[in-house]
Automatic annotation (TrEMBL):
Alphabetized PROSITE patterns for the sequence: UPF0076
The species this protein was found in: Deinococcus hohokamensis
Family membership: Belongs to the RutC family.
SUPFAM superfamilies the record matches: YjgF-like
Domain of life of the native organism: Bacteria
Name of this chain's protein: RidA family protein
């Protein structure tokens, strides 16, 4: 059975989607961008934006009954692949080893013209 996950500790969905859904023991998040829970865009470079994305992902996963240590797959969308190393340095601080599988792609444009968006798949406790 599929259930929606919602938390006030991450930005609210701005369309017909859930912050995450649970399906069996899986949690699949929607892409998180660097907005505060109040909906304000985090200014600054890729490091500040990636940090906020990770904070949002942590909040959504906790609301679903899991955490970053149980993430098995991530997809990272970057506005500029030249910012990969800086994004990766922040990303690495948030995940314990063994790291999740990951795909990283450069895209033409992201919502609100942010630098990064990340979605994850995790196992629930």
């Amino acid at each position: 059975m599929k259930d929606s996950v919602q938390t006030p500790h991450a930005p609210a969905a701005i369309g017909p989607y859930s912050q995450a859904v649970t399906f069996g023991n899986l949690v699949i998040t929607s892409g998180q961008i660097p907005l505060t829970p109040a909906g304000d865009l985090v200014e600054g470079g890729i490091e500040a934006q990636t940090e906020q994305v990770m904070i949002n992902l942590r909040a959504v996963l906790e609301a679903a009954g899991t955490d970053l240590a149980r993430v098995v797959k991530t997809t990272v969308f970057l506005a500029d692949m030249n910012e990969f190393a800086a994004m990766n340095a922040v990303y690495e601080r948030h995940f314990p080893s063994p790291y999740p599988a990951r795909s990283t792609v450069q895209v033409a444009r992201l919502p609100r013209d942010v630098r990064v968006e990340i979605e994850v798949i995790a196992e629930r406790h």
